[in-house]
Structure formats: structure tokens, C-alpha cells
């Protein structure tokens, strides 16, 4: 099997520069933050998941059964510290016996109590979430560029990289940024599977396996995001598959079973804590506009909102803008914005932002192909520059 050729041209280089700038923004914020009790909770519970779940009957960690909160963020936060602990164990064998931190292979006090032996704990906790946010940005650029060309892709990525809300979500351990990453990937992977079904069957299996992985990881981050993504993916696949719709019925069965196995693995294959996925209420929701209204009132998001308003007008008034590529992110945006979880503290409206940027990129790319190209090119540049300035000015407040 031949591996796909990877071509790194000027567009890929510019996208990488934008993502590196996004990373620099996040690292600047992290460098001015202090570790919070929430950071310690994610680190402690995540380390327990990797190293040894709590022996207490019915409990997965000393944090309890997490009451429907996804385990993905805890494992992401705890993994670097667990790796560092293993490195300390390996390096400890080179010390003299009287200077060792470990006696007989057992730790003398927890790693957290030996803070003087740890280095860059703050970055070990936060950088993995920044990397997932960068991964989402790369996926957003790839999808938007593939659908709308370079101009649409770079507008979507630019708004993403200079969105203070995205930066704020990326600089602290949380499941929302992972759910956002998983849900966006799940939707567009499902559409990719439906497109692949128009071709030879040898191309189906890798994409179906990727769809299963995306669904399982999304469920590990947030059950509601996985359910919404699963249902939406089936509907989009039915629409795209056309003559192969009879096969679409089978794919959700296999992906659902595989995703449950992945989710079971996140609970270390322990049935008791795994049962809380079904009884913890993590997927309970209602409707509220509190989250989106806060995003709208934030002056730093003004250029994004102006671009969104223009995109909505273009979609409603220009026929060429109303096609599947633009309608898909718009439907996901309208579906996610009014949702509010009732059992867990999360922000489903945040999951809608990548779809918002995709929608803006698509409609603006269509407008740039009309006789009004110069006008919309000026508007696009003004939106990006203004958003970048407001985002950089907001970084100190994000660090507080």
C-alpha cells in the first residue's frame, strides 16, 4: 500500500506560520498563569487513570466516577506527568542509593509532593491542550481550503487563530476543546466516508476506521458531543451517499460498537465506572442563549460577528452560496448554539465556533469570485487585521 504523497507548498507554509503564531499566543498566556485547583484536579485524576485507578470499590479515581464528565481531558492532562514520573524512575537508578527518590522501586511520597524534582509542570499540563487546538486549526484549514480554496481556508484559519474565546479554551485543561476537536473531525470524516463510498471499496475501510476512532474519542471527551455528531453524521452520509445509501445503514452499527470499545478502554476496561457513562447524565441538555450572548457582547469578537452577519446575508440573498459546503457548517452552527448541558459544566456553543469560521470562509470565498471581488477582498483584510489587533490586546485579560 503506497503512502499518500505530502506536498508542502506556499499555502501549507503560511498555514503553519499562522498556527505557530496561535501557539505563541497560547504559550504567552500560559506563561503568565498560575496553576489553579482545577489544574491540580485534572493532573491528579489523570495520573491515577494512567498509573493505577483507585482501589475503592465502584470508584475509578479518588475524584469519584466524574459524574458524566469525560475522561479524555483527564488522561491528556495526566499523561505528560506520568511520563515524567517514569523518566524520574529510570533516571533514579543512576543516583547513589542514599540520594534516590525511590526506594525499592516505590516512590517516597507522591510526585506532587516532590515538586522540587519536577520541571515545567505548568507547561506539561497545558501544552497538550494547545496542541489539540492547533490540530483542530489545521483540520479547519484543510477542510475549508479543500471546499472553498485558499482564500476561504485562510479566512477561516485566521479568524480561528485570532479568536480570544478559542485561545481561552485552549490554555487550560478541559473537555470542551477536545469535544470541539472531536465533533468537527467526526462530521467531516463522516462526509469523507460518504464521498469515498462513490469509489472503490478498498478506500472505505481506512475512512470507516478513522470515523470509528473519531466517534470514540469524541465520546471520551463529551457524551453529548458524540451523540449529536453521530446523529448528524448519519444524516449527512445519507444525503451524500446517494446510490450507496443501503451501505450507510451498516456503517453506524460498526462505528458505534467500535466507539463503545474505545470508550470502555478509557475506563481501563472496568465495568463499574464505565456504567456511569449511561447513568451519569453527561448527555442531558436544555436550551439557553446565555453562552452565545456572552460571546456576542464581547467587543473583541466584533469583527467575527460582522463577518458572520455579512456571511448570513450572502447565504440568504445569493443563490450560489446556498450549497452543501456552506449549508453543512450552518446547520451544525444553528444546532449547537442554543444547547446547554444540565448535568455537567460545559459549553456546547463553543463547539459551534469551528463551524462558524467554516461558514464564513465559504460564503466569503463565493463572494470573492464575483464582480465585487475587490470590495470583499478589502472587507476580508479589514476583518482579519482588526480581529488580530483586538485579540492581541485581549491576551493580558485572558491570562488573569
TrEMBL record:
The keyword Membrane applies. It comes from the Bacteria. The chain crosses the membrane at residues 123-142, 154-172, 178-196, 208-241, 247-267, 299-316, 323-342, 348-368, 375-399. Keywords: Membrane, Transmembrane, Transmembrane helix. Signal peptide: none annotated. This is Glycosyltransferase RgtA/B/C/D-like domain-containing protein.
Amino acid at each position: 500500500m503506497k503512502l499518500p504523497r505530502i506536498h508542502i507548498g506556499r499555502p501549507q507554509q503560511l498555514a503553519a506560520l499562522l498556527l505557530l503564531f496561535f501557539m505563541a499566543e497560547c504559550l504567552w498566556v500560559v506563561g503568565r498563569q498560575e496553576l489553579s485547583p482545577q489544574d491540580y484536579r485534572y493532573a491528579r485524576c489523570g495520573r491515577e487513570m494512567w498509573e493505577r485507578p483507585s482501589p475503592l470499590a465502584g470508584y475509578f479515581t479518588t475524584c469519584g466516577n466524574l459524574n458524566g464528565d469525560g475522561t479524555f481531558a483527564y488522561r491528556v492532562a495526566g499523561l505528560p506527568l506520568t511520563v515524567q514520573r517514569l523518566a524520574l524512575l529510570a533516571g533514579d537508578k543512576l543516583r547513589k542509593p542514599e540520594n534516590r527518590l525511590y526506594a525499592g522501586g516505590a516512590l517516597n511520597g507522591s510526585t506532587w509532593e516532590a515538586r522540587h524534582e519536577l520541571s515545567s509542570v505548568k507547561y506539561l499540563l497545558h501544552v497538550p491542550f494547545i496542541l489539540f487546538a492547533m490540530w483542530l486549526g489545521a483540520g479547519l484549514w484543510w477542510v475549508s481550503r479543500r471546499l472553498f480554496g485558499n482564500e476561504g481556508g485562510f479566512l477561516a484559519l485566521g479568524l480561528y487563530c485570532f479568536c480570544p474565546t478559542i485561545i481561552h479554551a485552549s490554555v487550560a485543561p478541559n473537555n470542551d476543546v477536545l469535544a470541539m476537536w472531536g465533533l468537527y473531525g467526526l462530521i467531516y470524516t463522516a462526509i469523507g466516508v460518504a464521498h469515498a463510498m462513490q469509489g472503490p471499496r478498498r478506500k472505505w475501510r481506512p475512512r470507516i476506521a478513522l470515523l470509528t476512532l473519531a466517534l470514540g474519542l469524541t465520546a471520551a471527551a463529551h457524551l453529548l458531543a458524540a451523540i449529536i455528531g453521530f446523529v448528524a453524521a448519519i444524516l449527512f452520509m445519507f444525503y451524500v451517499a446517494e446510490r450507496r445509501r443501503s451501505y450507510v445503514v451498516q456503517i453506524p452499527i460498526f462505528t458505534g460498537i467500535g466507539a463503545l470499545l474505545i470508550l470502555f478502554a478509557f475506563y481501563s476496561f472496568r465495568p463499574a465506572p464505565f456504567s456511569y457513562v449511561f447513568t451519569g447524565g453527561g448527555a442531558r441538555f436544555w436550551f439557553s442563549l446565555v453562552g452565545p450572548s456572552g460571546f456576542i457582547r464581547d467587543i473583541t469578537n466584533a469583527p467575527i460577528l460582522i463577518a458572520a452577519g455579512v456571511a448570513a446575508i450572502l447565504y440568504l440573498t445569493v443563490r450560489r452560496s446556498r450549497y452543501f459546503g456552506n449549508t453543512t457548517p450552518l446547520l451544525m452552527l444553528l444546532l449547537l448554539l442554543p444547547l446547554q448541558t444540565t448535568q455537567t459544566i460545559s459549553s456546547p456553543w463553543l463547539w459551534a465556533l469551528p463551524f462558524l469560521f467554516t461558514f464564513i470562509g465559504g460564503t466569503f470565498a463565493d463572494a470573492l469570485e464575483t464582480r465585487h471581488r475587490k470590495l470583499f477582498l478589502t472587507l476580508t483584510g479589514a476583518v482579519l487585521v482588526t480581529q488580530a489587533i483586538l485579540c492581541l490586546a485581549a491576551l493580558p485579560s485572558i491570562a488573569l
